[in-house]
Amino acid sequence: MRARVDQFSNQFQKIRSQLQLVVVGQPLLLDQVLWALVAGGNVLLEGVPGLGKTLLVKSLGQVLDLSFARCQFTPDLMPSDILGTQILDTASDGSRHFRFQPGPVFTHLLLADEINRATPKTQSALLEAMQERQVTVAGKAHTLPEPFFVLATQNPIDMEGTYPLPEAQVDRFLFKLLVEFPSQSDLASILDLTTGVKPPTVEVVCSAQELLEMQTLARDVAVAPELRQAIARLIRSTHPQLPEAGDAVHKYVRYGSSPRGAQSILLAAKARALSQGRLNVSLEDVQAVALPCLRHRILPSFEGEAEGIGSQALLQPLIDGLQLEVKA
Fold first, then answer.
1. What is the structure's pLDDT at 268?
2. Fold of the domain spanning 221-328
3. Helices (H), 115-258
């Protein structure tokens, strides 16, 4: 088991090192995206245009040797443009039959670019794919390739002509990550890399099968019962109608995290522990992944929206104050 953990850690660092060749700065973002992939979850990337979100996802597919498809979400995009459609074929003998033409969702890595620009009907087309790894067209289920991930982007500034993601779909993202604007030194490095004669390239350092093995190993990481209880307390403390909630949650939160939030925290914490070469999950792992796991799962109340109280301001004190309760 120790050898497998060391191999996992080395593989993780190889993938990260390749991504750093094209994605300048953002070390935490790279770690978080890789934790999510090892945990088998989807990622929602939020940031202004030009920060390299698309480059990150495309480079990820190249490094992991995964098939990659990009779908630009627009108001006129239809569900069949993503999932596929039935086509009427005519055989040589004149007979006709329907044939399924797969859409771009039939890939390992799907980039849903500006996902909030599509209508709710089109957004909901991804619900089954993101959760069950299959799509149903004309009453027939079609299995998606393994592994399968959706990495979606959205712009937090230009909200005109956008449709907020339904809560059910937002809940299917393991992480919501905020892509920060680069520092001055990072921005200078970006200019150096992208305006030269030869742009940087990445190499394949991991296969789809190896990634599946990393996912399997992550689920085998040991977790103490006290740590599971701590995660459960954290999730319950986000619900204003429950006694565990504090005054701020009672006042500013309309609805807290779903149980899927707890699952996301535990899976991501296991991936983080393995990436650091450890066989067990620590409280630090849980605290490191809790915010990206929960920030999109908290619905603010009217008072919270009116006073501009964001989910991070509400969650951070709960996460920082999380402790293990060891029974005597």
1. 96
2. Helicase, Ruva Protein; domain 3 (1.10.8)
3. 120-123, 127-132, 167-170, 184-194, 208-219, 225-236, 247-252
What type of residue is 101?
Answer: Q
Structure tokens at 116: 């909030």
Residue 144's alpha-carbon distances to 94, 131, 216, 264, in angstroms, are 32, 11, 18, 21
Q: How many residues does the chain have?
A: 328
Dist CA 75 CA 322 (whole Å): 42
Q: What class does CATH assign to 1-219?
A: alpha beta
Backbone φ/ψ region at 324: left (φ over 0), alpha (ψ -120 to 50), beta:
beta
Residue 148: name the closest of 41, 269, 70, 15 by CA: 41
What is d(CA 27, CA 96) in angstroms, rounded to the nearest whole number?
55
Cβ contact 167:300 at 8 Å: no
Which helix (H) or strand (E) is 60 found in, with range? helix 53-63
Where the chain has pLDDT below 50, the residues are: none
- Exposure letters 88-118 (e unless 16+ CB within 10 A, then b): eeeeeeeeeeeeeeebbbbbbbbbbbbbbbb
Res 327: pLDDT: 63
Q: Which helix (H) or strand (E) holds 270?
A: helix 259-275
Domain boundaries along the sequence of the chain:
1-219, 221-328
